[in-house]
TrEMBL record:
Belongs to the catalase family. HPII subfamily. GO terms for molecular function: catalase activity. It comes from Phytohabitans maris. Residues 1-52, 405-449 are annotated as: Disordered. PANTHER family: CATALASE, CATALASE-B. Residues 34-51, 408-422 have a biased composition (Polar residues). SMART domains: Catalase (SM01060). Residues 37-425 form the Catalase core domain. Residues 1-17 have a biased composition (Basic and acidic residues). Keywords: Heme, Hydrogen peroxide, Iron, Metal-binding, Oxidoreductase, Peroxidase. This is Catalase. Pfam families: Catalase (PF00199), Catalase-rel (PF06628), Catalase_C (PF18011). It comes from the Bacteria.
């Protein structure tokens, strides 16, 4: 309907109906577009006006199109996930490097080069669906593998341990972390009394607290973080032999996080920072990859190991049990529809395939109960397994039937078994050879509610994690504890948490206590069991020690003004392309600038909408006049001072000096400030230096 027609209230009509090649009817409107129809396929003539009696109403009940349209809209929302509500998914595949038939009969591990379709959903835990991406939080790393023998869901996180040891405490830890029930805030953060009250009363959470107060909880991108299956699982081979296994996802892009001050600002500048990053990477063909790593061990190792391998608050350090890389996960396709795929995907920890089995980890056992339940609540029907994103890619044959939205029901005579009907009419039968068989472990004992003594050392690995961090990472942990506890209104909660930290590291506890201004250092909390203390540090636990080898997949923001040197810009672009680094042009106006050669360069971003927190490094390409103009713009000064404060590399041309002077940084130009208009191959040199990611010396180590 054109504007005039809309104004005049003239109804649209006279559609033509075309017949498709197959004889099917297509509704084709006059302009060649598909006709709008109701859900029943009835072509709609007017979607602008309700049916009414007389020119000015009233509306008529008879208007079935309006009724249907609003009815459907009213029912668009489904309950958001009770945890991990905010997430982002993508499609891809898993490719096995080698056959693992000696370890497992799982079909996806039988042949080198075999590919298995995959869907991955990353998420934050505490925030609601509409919260921001860079909350300090655990990231979900849920992988659905559509194997030829059914779906295997490895529902993990980017942190290898968990807050609690027993699933019965899950509602409590989540209630404590979520907005407080009377006031409904704070959103997507643990910096409040309820969380720290619970955490300080649950010493088993201490190891996890170290991880979530570390930079692991503010990743730069989903692409730059590790994933973990957390629990100990079992592999079972065709002969029935079992091997314990812990699953790891190792990002081929290397690890990287942001700093807290940066995270806070990113949330304002681009609340969708992580989802946009993944979307952009995949649509640009820079497919992120992770290698699947396995830690494999037997009963002897489990008996020798200093902690219980069934305790989900413990890791097995990689230095003690190396991670064997057995395949790669590649994400190469974004979703077609967010709701259909990312929202409706239903992960269930109990989805395992023949060759993979559970252990008695009490958290895992409890999870197996919870996930199916939650999917029924969210998706409204036991037939959620029929949704394309959830449906196995292998044949499915059973006698389950009916229910809401049933789309696949038995069509032959029998809907039960055993039956005496012929193979055609009688349906499927059990398959003792291919079928899933539970590993026959012998478990017995008196029925009791208790926590095993072997789970009782809550502090040794927390300390190991802390001492394995680089000094600047330790400082970030100290700052995070201090910040979060400073948001607690009750001094006794702050003090109790510091008392717990004394069992981890006295310097840590003391510095946090000082930062909070506690009147006195509280006595350490009495530990449930004397900690092992001083375990060897594990270098694998540091992000900084495991950074990327190149600057690939990162993004540079180049701030330009009119007259910017076209040659330097071209060199910078070429060097970035060589390093597989993305470039965005930032300018005072989004229309762009005219460079020194008279050419016009359009901008990707207007300066005020593209603070330097959105980039891994920045460059300033300007003239003397341009620099003076920039020096007067708060957004331009922030662009530089934030890049400095967040320890980023800054490339600049000599003419930018006026801007640097206006930020007061002129006397502080360290290694991270790199001239890109001076030297042999200055742009390439700048990109090479950027591989270090940050100049951490700008942040002093803890005293
Ligand atoms: Fe959970 C969702 C990961 C413990 C109950 N969990 C959920 C998701 C991830 C995890 C990544 C989001 C899946 C998606 O993207 O749809 N959960 C974990 C990890 C845990 C863990 C790594 C500990 C090692 N979870 C855990 C426990 C329980 C739950 C102990 C309950 C007893 N989790 C759920 C749930 C959710 C969920 C309520 C909410 C939405 C959903 O399942 O699909 O069932």
């Amino acid at each position: 309907m054109d504007d005039k027609a809309r104004r005049d209230g003239i109804r649209y009509g006279e559609e033509t109906v075309a017949r498709g090649a197959g004889g099917e009817t297509h509704q084709i409107a006059r302009d060649g577009r598909t006709s709008l129809t109701t859900q029943q396929g009835i072509p709609v003539s007017d979607d602008q006006n309700t049916l009414r009696a007389g020119e000015r109403g009233p509306d008529l009940l008879e208007d079935f199109h309006f009724r249907e349209k609003v009815f459907h809209f009213d029912h668009e929302r489904i309950p958001e996930r009770v945890v991990h509500a905010r997430g982002f998914g993508a499609h891809g595949f898993f490719e096995a490097y080698e056959p693992l038939s000696d370890l497992t009969r799982a079909d996806l591990f039988q042949r080198a080069g075999q590919r298995t379709e995959a869907f991955v959903r990353f998420s934050t835990v505490a925030g609601s669906k509409g919260s921001f991406d860079l909350a300090r939080d655990v990231r979900g790393f849920a992988v659905k593998l559509y194997t030829r023998e059914g779906n295997w869901d490895l529902v993990g996180n980017n942190i290898p341990v968990f807050f609690i040891q027993d699933a019965i405490k899950f509602p409590d830890v989540i209630h404590a972390a979520k907005p407080e029930p009377d006031r409904g805030f704070p959103q997507a953060q643990t910096a409040h009394d309820n969380f720290w009250d619970f955490a300080s009363l649950m010493p088993e959470s201490t190891h996890m607290l170290m991880w979530i107060m570390s930079d692991r909880a503010i990743p730069r991108s989903f692409r730059f973080m590790e994933g973990f299956g957390v629990h100990t699982f079992r592999f079972v081979n065709a002969q029935g032999r079992s091997t314990f296994v812990k699953f790891h996802w190792k990002p081929k892009q290397g690890m990287q996080s942001v700093v807290w001050n940066e995270a806070v600002k990113i949330n304002g500048a681009d609340p969708d920072f992580h989802r946009r990053d993944l979307w952009d990477a995949i649509t640009q063909g820079a497919y992120p990859e992770w290698e699947l790593g396995l830690q494999l061990f037997d009963d002897d190792f489990a008996d020798r190991f200093a902690f219980d391998v069934l305790d989900p608050t413990k890791i097995i350090p990689e230095e003690e049990l190396p991670v064997r890389r057995v395949g790669r996960l590649v994400l190469d396709r974004v979703v077609d529809n967010f709701f259909a795929e990312t929202e409706q995907v239903a992960f269930c920890t109990q989805n395992v395939v023949p060759g993979i089995d559970f252990t008695n980890d009490p958290l895992l056992q409890g999870r197996n109960f919870s996930y199916l339940d939650t999917q029924l609540k969210r998706l409204g029907s036991p037939n959620f397994t029929r949704l394309p994103v959830n449906a196995p890619r292998c044949p499915v044959a059973h006698f389950q039937q009916d229910g809401h939205m049933a789309t696949m029901n038995p069509s032959s005579r029998a809907n039960y078994e055993p039956n005496s009907w012929s193979p055609e009419e009688g349906g499927p039968r059990e398959d003792p050879v291919r079928g899933f068989t539970t590993y026959p472990s012998t478990d017995s004992g008196p029925k009791r509610r208790l926590r095993p003594e072997s789970f009782a050392d809550h502090y040794s690995q927390a300390r190991q994690f802390y001492l394995s961090q680089a000094p600047v990472e330790r400082r970030h942990i100290v700052d995070a504890f201090t910040f979060e506890l400073s948001k607690c209104e009750r001094p006794d909660i702050r003090a109790r948490m510091v008392a717990g930290l004394r069992n981890v590291d006295d310097d840590l506890a003391r510095t946090v206590a000082d930062g909070l201004g506690l009147p006195a250092l509280p006595d350490p909390l009495p530990p449930a069991r004397e900690p092992v203390r001083d375990l060897a540090p594990s270098p694998a636990l540091s992000i900084i020690a495991n950074g990327p080898e190149s600057f690939a997949g990162r993004k540079i923001g180049i701030l330009v003004t009119d007259g910017a040197d076209a040659g330097v810009l071209a060199e910078l672009r070429a060097a970035a392309a060589e390093e597989k680094t993305n470039v965005e042009i930032v300018a005072p106006a989004v229309g762009g600038v005219d460079t020194s050669d008279g050419n016009h360069v359009s901008a990707d971003q207007k300066l005020e909408g593209a603070p330097s927190v959105l980039y891994d490094a920045v460059a300033i390409l300007t003239t003397k006049e341009g620099a003076t103009q920039l020096a007067n713009l708060p957004a331009a000064r922030d662009f530089v001072t934030d890049a400095y404060a967040h320890c980023k590399f800054v490339g600049y041309v000599e003419e930018a000096t006026a801007l640097l002077a206006a930020t007061g940084l002129n006397g502080h130009l360290d290694d991270g400030f790199v001239r890109i208009d001076d030297g042999q191959r200055p742009a390439a040199d700048f990109l090479t230096r950027c591989r270090r990611l940050r100049i951490w010396d700008r942040q002093a180590a803890p005293s």
